[in-house]
Amino acid sequence: MLRITLAQLNPTVGDIEGNTQRMAAAARQAAGEGAQLIVFGELAVTGFQPGDLLAEPGFLDRVDTALALLQRESAALPDLHWVLGAPTAHAGGPNALPHDSLLVLQGGQLRLSVARRQLAAQGDPDLRSHFAPGPAEAPQLLDIGDVRVGFVVGEDLQDEATAAAMAGAAPGLVVHIGARSSCLGRRAQRHAQCAQASERLRAPLVSVQQVGGHDDLVYDGGSLAAVPGAGVVFEALRFEEDAPLLELHDGGRLSGARGQALADVPAEGLPLMEFYRRQIVLGLQDYARRCGFAKVLVGSSGGLDSALTLALAVQALGAQNVVGVTMPSRFSTAGSVQDSLALGRNLGIELLSHPIADLVAAYGGQFQGSFGQPLAGLALENVQARIRGTVLMEYSNTFGHLLLTTGNKSEISVGYCTLYGDTCGGLGLIGDIYKTEAFELARHLNARAGRELVPQAVIDKPPSAELSPGQRDDDSLPPYPVLDEVLKFLVEGPALPPAQYQAARAFVEEQQRSEEGRALVQRVRRLMAISEYKRHQAAPVLRLRPRPFGAYGRQMPIAARLG
């Protein structure tokens, strides 16, 4: 029998010393529970992924120091094998890129080193600019107790040649370390890949992932075990640290500690809105903590998006650490002001007021005095948004709060936002969910709480930027249920989970059957294209869906011509 601890930790990128201390503590606990093998995630020493930190002077020296410390720690626990990920030097010389390696430590010695070969991973940080691929070599195996264990890193698990060679070596267990970020559909993909890999390898498989928010990416954990013929038989906690102990018995059977039967793993993951909620909450918690922010700030317009952002921020950080600011103008309705007050009461947050009517009038008078033209139309609408953005940044600078942007993916896609206005801020919580989903998420928060967090009046009223008399979003845009289906097809397309893709594709094909529908789709495509420059300057947005805007999803040139 082999006892295995899956050490699913939340490392901080670049905090080599802190990560190492936490790994050592986890190993001591695992040894105390009788584990013979502890498995950490990919690049656990540095956090995934360090990017150009690898080229910073002294960074790799700090990694070497950390590995030396872990080796000494392993000497004090001689019965425990440690599997962990770290950058290691390339034999090609001092200027060569390092390897993304899996290391096995035991008894104060480095027993094994395996360098990742397949570096590309669609929709995740591209490692090819920062790491050299490992050499093609025979499968790396090690006898631990009476079990022959094979080791695989990252996307090498999907490589057919690696799988065939490993299967030929007849391991009794395969250990995989990875770090794939979380998004809609990723859990199902991970389960399918690990189940298939276990079948190809003809051996039980354990796969350890990291957890936590890192910039705009969130890692959901969900480390797992799979066996041939049964698929995934165990899944660790999602969106939190976990260190479960598994036992591998003769014949490849897996159990929990002391032989306990493993709980059934549900085929479906979290309900969609609960997945969104947990991913956003963890993403904000870690972003604020790692960037040194104790409190956050949101402009409260009385509309759905700001209300939803405030409600999520409260769940992440607590009401005492969230501040809302209302900034009514002469176009703000009494209902919106009252809705903001109701929201503040429901959430228990501090809600401040900073009217902007006088500032807008001063801008208009100064503009006309200087340029001989009244401030009107789009310019007047945008100056209100920019004044609000300036006020919020003034507050952020003065009191040290992190300003959260409130745009949703529908608005960001078509540029229905004001650059240097409502786009001001350091992080967007809902910028990767569509407007129709924002309504669903608000209802989910209320249902989960058993009371109104987001006032029902906010959910029910027609969306409006309130920058001109009687303004409504659908004066400028197609209705959101229509717009969102077109956007899902244009922005994400085949990257969507199959059912969503088929629905979006069918919707757009139906639009193409009429002249009006074709014009609508073309209009949306044009709005997306002409607002590309806004997205290039926008705050980072927490990734939730398969193809976000930015480095890990849809990337388009600004100065391009539509076909």
Q: What average pLDDT do the residues reach?
A: 93
Amino-to-carboxy terminus distance: 62 Å
For this structure, the quaternary state is single chain
The low-confidence runs, each spanning 5 or more residues with pLDDT under 50, are: none
Return the structural class: alpha/beta
Global Rg: 26 Å
Strand content: 15-25%
The spatial strand order of the largest sheet comes to 5-4-3-2-1-14-15
Query: Number of helix segments?
Result: 17
Topology:
Layout: E1 2-6, H1 16-32, E2 37-39, H2 59-75, E3 81-88, E4 99-106, E5 109-115, E6 141-144, E7 147-153, H3 160-168, E8 173-177, H4 186-201, E9 205-208, E10 211-214, E11 217-220, E12 224-227, E13 231-235, E14 245-248, E15 254-256, H5 272-291, E16 296-299, H6 304-317, E17 322-326, H7 334-347, E18 350-353, H8 357-371, H9 377-399, E19 402-405, H10 409-414, E20 427-428, H11 435-449, H12 456-460, H13 473-476, H14 480-492, H15 498-511, H16 515-530, H17 532-536
Parallel strand pairs: 1-2, 2-3, 7-8, 8-9, 16-17, 16-19, 17-18, 19-20
Antiparallel strand pairs: 1-14, 3-4, 4-5, 6-7, 9-12, 10-11, 12-13, 14-15
Structural description of this entry:
- The protein has about 575 residues and is an alpha/beta fold.
- It has 17 helices and 20 strands.
- The protein has helices at about 15-30, 60-75, 160-170, 185-200, 270-290, 305-315, 335-345, 355-370, 375-400, 410-415, 435-450, 455-460, 475, 480-490, 500-510, 515-530, 530-535, and strands spanning about 1-5, 35-40, 80-90, 100-105, 110-115, 140-145, 145-155, 175, 205-210, 210-215, 215-220, 225, 230-235, 245-250, 255, 295-300, 320-325, 350-355, 400-405, 425-430.
- The strands form 4 sheets. Strands 5-4-3-2-1-14-15 form a 7-stranded mixed beta sheet, with helices on one face. Strands 6-7-8-9-12-13 form a 6-stranded mixed beta sheet.
- β7, α3 and β8 (about 175) form a beta-alpha-beta unit.
- α5 (about 270-290) crosses α11 (about 435-450) and α6 packs across α11.
- The longest helix has 23 residues, at about 375-400.
- The radius of gyration is 26 Å and the shape is elongated.
- About 50% of the residues are buried.
